[in-house]
Design brief:
The complex is a heterodimer of chains A (510) and B (379). By secondary structure, chain A is α/β, with parallel strands linked by helices. In chain A, 34% of the residues lie in helices and 26% in strands. Chain A contains 18 helices and 22 strands. In chain A, the strands form 5 sheets. Chain A has a 6-stranded mixed beta sheet with strand order 6-7-8-3-9-10, with helices on both faces. Chain A has a 6-stranded mixed beta sheet with strand order 16-19-20-13-21-22, sandwiched between helices. Chain A has a 4-stranded antiparallel beta sheet with strand order 2-1-4-5, covered by helices on one side. In chain B, helix 2 (40-53) packs across helix 3 and helix 4 (88-106) packs antiparallel against helix 5 (112-141). Classes of the chains: A alpha/beta (510), B mainly alpha (379).
Chain lengths: 510, 379
């Protein structure tokens, strides 16, 4: 085995009483791609933050290139040749690529010299690693895939020998992800070391040499990728066997519950984000809307559920129109049997500062079951919340606990329980399993299928292609605000990926 | 990244931390006292003695506290709805006009217990009215409530100068104030309650408005945590997006919350106007509306906390006056410095000691903070 680029010995880190990392030992070999997988909250981010100097470990040692290293700030990490590409890019949107690359690494008080130097250096890096980006392009005008390349260039410009990537493919199309993987392989061939943090097991299998699995703050296993399987990794992550694909029968689609016709939505700047979208949703089927984040799916959901105003078009719920141009009232839609699990549970679907039971009535707080005149019927609300906690196995089973203190998966269950238990005719779900751990994903998928089997109409929007493919009876693909294709669940990933990238769409235009 | 700190048990959150903050504020204030060449321990003793030492002092402390309870509740109600109403000063001031009109009209014909309810309604209505315009502008036009409410303080001040000097001032009087109210416009004192405990009171302005303040504190608690309206206000206050999602009308909830907040601010005028001075004088609010902000901050927008914080500030007012009297080197402005330090440590720097205390608690007994209490944002 090659010499270790990084060695972590006995790393411990606690936040208050929570032990985010317990006695972690990890050796990352030079010139390899090393994957780190684990559920949300398993401690992956904390570990990498320690390595990059955001946090200090409570105890333990870090060795870089065989030498003990003290990493107190990100600058220390950079000096040791460690670079990080964050999940959320740290770029200045209205700066050019070049300006972003030299930001914080300017060599002179005057920029002219640094820029000239950076330009030639950047060109060399781009050539060497196949990272083509126009150095003078403005960041906000670049697609996310290219923005990510800028992040990588930034790290390389600072002399990174070890590159940490945190969930790098979350925002990419399959094609962009493939390109990223090619870049990573090229980096590896040039002798760089890559650490890939992800929860997508397929990526791990596709690209890494070694994979380490974390669970609840501990490092449970390190495997050679070639000698392991997706099933084994999933089991290690969760600590038990999981079904990776939901089992479901044939859909028995009934009458049309929701009819969307020529729906057009503009955002606050007047840009058309949903462009002339039409589709039907029938009772007893799940329709999935696939697409790369930011292609109008979120706005489509918001328009249908009455949160966002539409410019034109119509939506019929059970044959009766929804008022879209005025202030469509989400409360009224709920009464008409349209339940909505929003994409952003932290700011929209839940009030994190509330107790769990208070969130379990959000949006249904007008329901007389929960009221006694103008007063809240606290007993009824808490009893109701306890029922849902039992039924949906929400943990910890404490309806008085602040919602922020539940894990992502359990928060999502709180929202789902609230919306599903109202027995709606139509259920609209945005990103059903974003930030949700593998165990809860299985549960949520089963519930959605169960809804369908009860004859409900379910609309699912997700950026996880696997999820769309395993749940949906029909798949609609959105690109640039339009629906660019409809496929059955048997559609291949490649086919959907091309649609998501707008390829077919553009070909037609050419 | 979400705050990587575990939650504290309630008693530490609401009891220990404010006490520590207060203690530090007093220590720093002590240095200031030393700086002017006085003995800080003696100063502290005089302050506490002046506020709680004799029945007289207690009555004054509670009298000041009464006003602060109203203004603190006013700020807190708005804060629960995510609004920062710093117009309590103006809302309370203008409410004096309503009280004045009621008292001047009825003080000769009605007994106090009939004038009082009318005056409460008038005070609440005027305060609410003064809050309504900024509320409407915020809800409909997006004008920032902080800016508009503070500007309305100035408008209120100007209106009151005009009303008191040109309209309500009795002919021939030199003072810019209304005539004194008769019996029917004067609220009974509550000093006898303190005298029950054996203390002697010469004369102190503590009056029945104190009881009204306690009732309002309870009603605010009921409103915020036990009614549908309070639920909607809290939802909007924590997350306007979640409120939109839940079908709560933004316009409606902003206006209602500000009306209630304004009404509470208005009621604080009852205490000095009907309870003490028995007239409406220029600048009778004298900053109590702003103290309400500090009271609400320190009381963590909870009625119980507000009542306690109001008493603390009442103590600073009363004890501070005694201190200025006993120690000539310490002027009235020194008291303002001490109050400022309390606000600084209890309000603005509220989170300064929190992480350390949380770490301490976690190391002593992990149970109390709950192991599953925090999920740091995972990878």
């Amino acid at each position: 085995m090659a010499q270790a680029a990084i060695e972590l010995i006995g790393i411990n880190k606690s936040f208050g009483a929570v032990r985010a990392n317990r006695d972690i030992n990890l050796e990352i070999a030079r010139g390899t791609i090393h994957g780190i997988v684990g559920e949300n909250g398993a401690g992956k981010s904390t570990l990498m933050s320690i390595l990059y100097g955001f946090y200090q470990a409570d105890s333990g040692e870090i060795h870089v290139g065989g030498q003990p290293a003290s990493i107190k700030t990100p600058n220390d990490a950079i000096a040791l040749g460690i670079g990080m590409v964050h999940q959320h890019f740290m770029l200045v949107d209205n700066f050019s690529v070049l300006e972003n690359v030299i930001l914080g690494a300017e060599s002179d008080a005057l920029l002219k010299k640094s820029i000239a130097k950076a330009r030639s250096e950047l060109e060399r890096l781009e050539r060497e690693y196949g990272l083509e980006v126009d150095p003078d392009a403005i960041i906000e005008e670049l697609p996310v895939g290219l923005q990510q390349r800028v992040e990588i260039l930034k790290a390389l410009y600072r002399g990174a020998e070890i590159l940490i990537l945190d969930e790098p493919t979350g925002v990419l199309t399959p094609a962009e992800a493939d390109h990223l993987f090619r870049i990573l392989k090229q980096l590896k061939e040039q002798g760089k070391t890559v650490v890939l943090i992800t929860h997508k097991l397929r990526e791990i299998m596709a690209i890494t040499d070694t994979v380490s699995v974390m669970r609840q703050g501990t490092m449970v296993a390190t495997r050679e990728t070639k000698k392991t399987t997706v099933g084994e990794l999933a089991e290690l992550m969760v600590g038990r066997r999981v079904l990776l694909r939901v089992e479901k029968g044939e859909a028995e689609a009934g009458g049309i519950k929701l009819a969307v016709k020529n729906l057009t939505v503009k955002d606050s700047r007047g840009v058309t984000v949903v462009d002339d979208v039409s589709f039907d949703l029938r009772a007893g089927e799940i329709v999935g809307i696939a697409g790369v984040a930011g292609n109008g799916q979120s706005e489509l959901l918001e328009a249908i559920s009455g949160i966002r105003h539409a410019v034109s078009g119509s939506v019929m719920l059970d044959g009766k129109p929804i008022d879209l141009t005025g202030a469509a009232d989400p409360g009224e839609l709920r009464e008409r049997g349209l339940a909505h699990v929003p994409e952003d549970r932290h700011h929209v679907g839940l009030v994190l500062a509330f107790e769990e039971n208070e969130n379990s009535i959000l949006g249904y707080h007008d329901d007389e079951r929960y009221l006694k005149g103008p007063f809240l019927n606290i007993d009824a609300i808490r009893d109701d919340a306890k029922d849902k906690i039992t039924k949906y196995d929400i943990r910890p089973a404490d309806c008085r606990l602040r919602t922020a203190n539940f894990s992502g998966g359990n928060q999502q269950k709180i929202v789902l329980a609230r919306e599903m238990e109202q027995d709606p005719g139509v259920l609209i779900v945005g990103q059903p399993t974003r930030g949700v751990d593998v165990g809860a994903i299985e549960f949520i998928h089963k519930r959605l299928i169960a809804m369908r089997d009860q004859g409900k109409a379910v609309l699912v929007v997700s950026v996880e292609l696997d999820e769309i493919r395993s749940l949906s009876d029909r798949i609609l693909v959105m690109f640039a605000g339009r629906i660019v294709g409809e496929r059955g669940p048997e559609a291949t990933e490649g086919e959907l990926g091309l649609l998501m990238a707008g390829v077919e769409h553009q070909e037609a235009a050419e | 990244m979400s705050t990587p700190y575990a939650k504290l048990p309630g008693w530490a959150d609401y009891g220990l931390i404010p006490v520590i903050n207060l203690f530090v504020a007093f220590v720093v204030a002590g240095f200031v006292v030393m700086l002017v060449g006085e003995n800080p321990l003696r100063a502290a003793a005089i302050l506490v003695e002046g506020a709680f030492g004799r029945g007289q002092g207690i009555a004054f402390t509670l009298y000041y506290a009464t006003t602060f309870i109203f203004s603190g509740l006013s700020v807190a109600v708005a804060v629960h709805c995510g609004l920062f109403n710093i117009g309590g000063e103006g809302q309370g001031y203008i409410a004096g006009l309503g009280i004045g009109v009621v008292c001047l009209a009825f003080d000769s014909v009605l007994p106090w217990w009939l004038t009082f309810p009318l005056a409460i309604i008038a005070a609440a209505a005027m305060g609410a009215l003064w809050a309504l315009i900024p509320a409407y502008l915020q809800a409909k036009r997006g004008s920032h409530i902080v800016i508009t409410t503070i500007m309305f303080n100035f408008i209120a001040a100007s209106v009151m100068v005009y009303m008191l000097v040109d309209v309500l001032k009795p002919a021939g009087s030199m003072a810019p104030q209304t005539r004194n109210f008769l019996e029917g416009g004067q609220l009974p004192k509550l000093n006898w309650i303190i005298e029950l405990f054996g203390a002697k009171i010469r004369s102190a302005p503590l009056n029945v408005t104190f009881l009204l303040a306690l009732v309002m504190a309870f009603l605010v608690w009921l409103l915020i945590w036990r009614t549908k309206l309070g639920y909607e206000m809290r939802t909007y206050g924590h997350s306007p997006k979640a409120a939109r999602y839940a079908g709560i009308s933004e316009t409606r909830i902003i206006i209602i919350a500000m009306l209630i907040s304004g009404a509470l601010a208005g009621m604080m005028a009852l205490n000095p106007v009907m309870g003490d001075q028995h007239n409406v004088a220029l600048d009778f609010v004298s900053g109590a509306g702003f103290v309400g902000i500090a009271v609400a901050l320190m009381g963590r927008s909870h009625p119980v906390g507000i009542v306690l914080a109001a008493i603390l500030f009442g103590m600073l007012y009363q004890g501070g006056a005694e201190l200025a009297f006993e120690m000539p080197a310490i002027s009235r402005d020194m008291i303002v410095i001490i109050q400022g330090l309390v606000i600084l440590f209890a309000g603005a720097l509220e989170h300064m000691f929190r992480p350390h205390i949380q770490a301490l608690f976690a190391s002593i007994s992990p149970r109390t903070v709950g192991i599953e209490a925090v999920k740091g944002k995972g990878a």
